[in-house]
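ok posting inputs for the T4K job
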Amino acid sequence: MKTIKTKQDLAINGAAPAFEEPLHVGCPNIGSREGFLKYAGEIFDRRWLTNNGPLVQEFEQRVAEYHNVTHCVAMCSGTVALEIAIRALGLEGEVIIPSYTFIATAHALHWQAITPVFADIDPATHTLDPDAVRSMITPRTTGIIGVHLWGRSAPVEALQAIADEYGLKLMFDAAHAFGCSYRGTMVGSFGACEVLSFHATKFFNTFEGGAVLTNDDKLADAMRLMRNFGFSGMDNVIHPGTNGKMIEVAAAMGLVNLDAITSVIEANKHNFQAYHEGLSGLSGISLLTFDESELNNYQYVVMVVDEKCPVTRDQIFQSLHAENILARKYFWPGCHKMKPYVDLYPHADLLLPNTCQVADRVIILPTGTAVNSNMIQAVISVIQTYISG
Ligand code: T4K
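and the output
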């Protein structure tokens, strides 16, 4: 890693890149290696690898306690957890979601022949705008899926009020919101249920994995059946189902990562603050901040490049990549511009002006335990030099 000094020193001018090895967004946080290997040894000794094993059960209990909810139903991925929650809730017809989210939120509906209808976001929060949601309701609408994007809560009360008024089901995609709170209540208790992702790139991972959190006993029972083919005891299938189970080795990773979670959040917070200080004062550049009265996981450092910036978002993005800083443009260009939704809604841009504007402005910067202060200073230096040079 070299120190960037002038614009001529940037790799886009032919100099060596700031980072010899790529600096990724989403580089996994990994807890105790020894702890994981100990669990792995126990798994081998027991010869119990999957199908609601003891580590999955322990993991579910600890995640439920952490979020202060009655049930955590662990699954093989966040996407399958979304699909199963959607089916267990009985959603059909049309379901309103933001377009500014990872494609899995939309695909989990489309995969089950449910039409995702995209509502616009509030440009200040990047989460669903309740008025926009209201304007997209039709006689076919059965539900709303709010997304706690970047770990910052969707407007849960306003969405619940709309759901109650129109008799709709409400659930949340909380893939980014493990360990986050809203008005003092941990994520997991809002709506009918909330879905977590434990993918490798999430700040808390089980290699691959996900879960549904809920306080609804019946819903939890239905999802437990559905994730295991609908089996109720041996040879007795009482419900349609799929294979959504979490495996023991994933739960082992989850358990060691739960032990490390406080230090991971501290590292993320420290990194966020370093970026915030280093980038403040740059014209047209701002970081999305967090409500410090809540619990936050700080897993996404979201830099917004607005029209006051002398260079474009894409120019900054390219200069970072030239330096081997693999920033991301999540969730550009928005689900409505991707297949198959772009064909279903070719003119959706007209109804989603805030989504389009935000998607064109955001850059996600690297953070996590693999990123240290020196690396952050180097990233800041590239951005400063590129903008002011
Ligand atoms: N809802 C929302 C709102 C979500 O954000 C997601 C997932 C879901 C639902 C669905 O949950 P899952 O079914 O995935 O559990 C990544 C993740 O694959 C995806 O889980 C995540 N959101 C999304 C925001 O990011 P990509 O397409 O960016 O992945 P990829 O392979 O480009 O990796 C991202 C970066 O991470 C790369 O620069 C390399 C680095 N990386 C990746 C892996 C897998 C590592 O350093 N090590 C690794 O092991 O989607």
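notes: Residues 227 and 243 are 5 Å apart (CA to CA). The two ends are 20 Å apart (CA to CA).
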